[in-house]
Amino acid sequence: MKVGFIGLGNMGKPLADRLLINNELFVYDLDQKKLEYFTNKGAISCSTPSELASTTSIIFLCLPTSAIVDKVINGENGLIKSATKGSYIIDMTTGEPETTRKIAKILKEKEINFIDAPVSGGPKGAHQGNIAIMVGGTESQFAKIKPIMDDISSNIFYAGKIGSGHSIKAGNNLLNLICRMATFEVISLLVKDGVDSNRAVEIIQKSSGRNYATEITLPDNILSGKMFQGFSTGLMKKDASVATKIANANKIDIPLGKLSQELLNRTIDEFGEDADMSNVALTYEKLTGTKIRP
Ligand code: NAD
Question: Cα of 275 to ligand 1 centre, how many Å?
């Protein structure tokens, strides 16, 4: 099948790599080096989103923000210029549900399907073919698109109406941030009390306090000394702010969410928005005067 992919960064690259196995892949990105990686593997490079939409009727997007998604679809030489009736644009960006619903409405008038399908599990999960994909749209759109997504992952979920995938993804990432901060706080406390951090994480991972930070973040990225997870502080800040927008729109107070974002901002103040999320551990070490890393 002819399939298009736009946005070949840390996350888009391994997702597109999986589609390349069974499909004829058409790619577009602003970064020529990212395009070359795929053309060297047999994919066809397009010079604009519009050109890509004239060749394929199934188009995946994995871009930094919903504002960029809007530009790639509705901007100059955007997908909307040449996308055919009945085609599918599948947005794997971690985006904003409100913008997603607006874009879907515009595209529906042209009989173009727009669905949200953000992912969770990072580049590692994409490589392994088990990344979680949460799909927002109608059930019939989901049924139509699922067989193509099966090429990417064995963990595909129907999330609900358009925008639901993006809502759940924002909630998931805020929860990840809260759990990460809580875990670093507790591990720092235990180290201060004379406990070995490796041992504490190993035991908590088998106890009632276990979470993604005790299972993956600390053992794989921090305690191993790797200090790289492939996810930037700036993207986490964006994801948490999407969850905050949802809370504000629904007039719900999220005190833990606010506090975790304030703590994240300390890392951003020190290391910038391009820094890897692993740097949060360094902020905690400074804050508590302990060394989490062995
Ligand atoms: P990234 O910055 O590594 O990649 C973004 C890519 O989009 C780059 O190749 C860039 O050149 C391209 N791009 C930007 N603007 C463009 C435009 N106008 N036209 C065409 N290409 C354009 O980011 P990433 O880590 O791959 O994240 C992409 C999305 O996936 C984000 O929404 C992020 O929140 C989400 N996500 C990332 C991870 C992760 O672990 N990295 C995990 C889950 C979800």
Answer: 15
How far, in Å, CA of 25 to CA of 148, rounded? Answer: 12
* pLDDT digits 0-9 by tens, 167-189: 999 999 999 999 999 999 999 99
The whole model's pTM is what? 0.93
In testing the pocket of ligand 1, which one of 62, 274, 276 has its CB within 8 Å of the most ligand atoms?
62
Nearest CA to ligand 1 atom 16: 30
Using DSSP, state whether 157 is helix, strand or coil: strand
Measuring CA to CA, how many Å separate 125 from each of 8, 11, 132, 224, 231? 16, 10, 8, 19, 13
State the distance from the centre of ligand 1 to the C-alpha of 171, rounded, in angstroms.
19
> Which domains are delineated in the chain?
2-161 (3.40.50.720), 167-288 (1.10.1040.10)
